[in-house]
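== Sequence and structure of one protein ==
=== Format: two labelled lines per protein ===
==== Data for this protein ====
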Amino acid sequence: MIAPASLGSWSTALPGHGVGSRSDLPLPFAALVAAAGAALLISFVAIGFLWREPRLRESDGLLLPDWLAGVLDSRWLRLVAQVLAVALTLWTLFALVFGPDSALNPVPHVVYVWFWVGLAFASMLFGPVWRVINPVRMLHAGVLRLARVSPDLAVLPYRWGLWPAALGLGTFTWVELVAEENTSLDFLRLLIASFFALSLLGAAVFGRTWFDLADPFEAWSRLLGLLSPLGRRDDGRWVLRTPLHGVNTLRGQRGLVATVAVMLGGTAYDGFSANLGWATFVQSSPLPSSLLRTVTLIGFFGLVALTLWLASAVSVRLAGEPLRQSVSLVSDMAPSLIPIAGGYVIAHYWSLWVYQGQVTWQLLSDPLGTGADWLGTAGLVPADALIQPTLVATIQAVSILVGHLLGVLAAHERAITVLPHRAAIIGQVPLMVVMILYTVGGLTILFTP
């Protein structure tokens, strides 16, 4: 996607987007795939016999100390985070408008590394942070406050659920993975200006509900934020909890399946597109490469949604329910794919985040490309300890496997909640098969050169 300003000898060692090769694994690939499939099957059998009633409650969790909960709820913490977010936004816009259109400009790194990948990692650690530091949301709220207008002002009621967010996430994924010249300043100026304009227009018409549901990056942060160990129980107190508790709070809603399909399908396509065989096919095809890659990306989105729907359709038939129930079941089951999507994000973007995130610090110190060192970080030498091949391969394999195991548990909890008790176990079999295919497919994508 983007080339670092100065990689030196690491240009051949750093895999793009954190996608390694099979030779990086400390275990034979066939053994890893067999172990992954066995782990999923064993977990399914175990939970089928030992976990027969819903166990995840909103009152669960380990209470945080009062002083730590007070810090998390404090206005100054929110204010500091917002000030830093605004400062970074203004600094990036400064480089966007006045900086050089070259590899020395930090804007592509801020957009594709810090914003896209860093936001995902931060959300999985701390929760839906973008809701707090979204500069467009803050700008909208500030304008309404200055105009002394209610923050709930809306011209029209909002009715589309997460569909605009799914479309926005799909568009950004296409920009990141398919669009040509996606690091040129002209392209980025148009992209960022369009996003700001559309967001402000949506907020002006539909009020702040637009940010809650339609903003693609708030949806990205909120859904991945469900995996955070930090959460609130039903009485509002801060607790440490499992990722399953966060995922279990999400209920089916319009556009959720499409949004999750884009999240999972886009990351899977990212790994697939790094395959040498695919790259050779694209280059030798008589079709335009951008068209071929666009169609394939959309195909990955559709494949996730289709397999989830088919699994749900078979599940309701096995449960003895009418086929029309599959529409609601697919939405109920969609949250169980979020841990899988989170595992894919870690696997595919770990190296990119660790290494290029440090390179971004270098470039931010010289936003105009004049050789200045305004932040004192221009001489930063990126550390490589966390991108050693064996460590990267281990992180990739573990994150995908853990993500799928959490997905199985989340699906089981939801199944025994929404399906008739007598059919809940057998009704999970189709979704279990789909998750095994996702596991093997994800590992194959990662470790096939």
Notes: The beta strands are 62-63, 230-232, 238-240.
